[in-house]
Known about the structure:
The complex is a heterodimer of chains A (113) and B (114).
Chain A lengths: L4 E3 L2 E4 L5 E6 L6 E7 L6 E7 L2 E4 L8 E4 L6 E5 L8 E8 L7 E2 L3 E5 L1
Parallel strand pairs in A: 2-11
Antiparallel strand pairs in A: 1-3, 3-8, 4-5, 4-9, 5-6, 7-8, 9-10, 9-11
Chain B lengths: L2 E3 L4 E5 L4 E3 L2 E3 L4 E8 L6 E6 L5 E3 L5 E5 L4 E6 L8 E9 L7 E2 L3 E6 L1
Parallel strand pairs in B: 2-12
Antiparallel strand pairs in B: 1-4, 3-9, 5-6, 5-10, 7-8, 8-9, 10-11, 10-12
Amino acid sequence: ExxxxxxxxxxxxxxxxxxAFWCNPISGHATLYWYQQIxxxxxxxxxxxxxxxxxxxxxxxxxxxxxxRLKGVDSTLKIQPAKLEDSAVxxxxxxxxxxxxxxxxxxxxxxVT
Amino acid sequence: AQSVTQLDSQVxxxxxxxxxxxxxxxxxxxxxLFWYVQYPNQGLQLLxxxxxxxxxxxxxxxxxxxxxxxxxxxxxxKPSVHISDTAEYFCxxxxxxxxxxxxxxxxxxxxxxx
Lengths: 113, 114
């Protein structure tokens, strides 16, 4: 089966600019996650979707981050405006059911200068 | 709320030596536990999982982990490591009641010396 697709792979922007990341999960996976992984740390959950509804966004900085999954398939994560501390790898993952393992994409490495 | 603690940020070992990567969790409800691995320049992938049943679970490449409820631990072990095991290892937890919210530890970088 095709894996989780993410783009772009790398992105460099200046602070206060905006950026968007795209994720296409494994076909049929209802649950989609966005994680932020700062260098030297474990992945931190930003937002979890079940189909096109938000299950958990308690750690999403909503003043600058937004995410959507309009048709319950692919998803976009946006940062506007970016800050230096947003430099990280943004990981998208999907799973096929309750407590099923996560399948991760290769991530988008964001550098904010 | 759940949390995961990986006490060792780095573990250097010699090739063919045994290794143990420690993981402790905190939860007020029953949990599912996972180990994920991230090889250099690759994405995270599942190594093994504990959902129920036998407390000792194994991966296809020789790793094993034992769920110890009394000590709230899920340590990862391998009796003899290989250079190809060089990677970062993440312990993760979710609970029966958390709607599949999965919390990760901070990771342990395993480096193998020849």
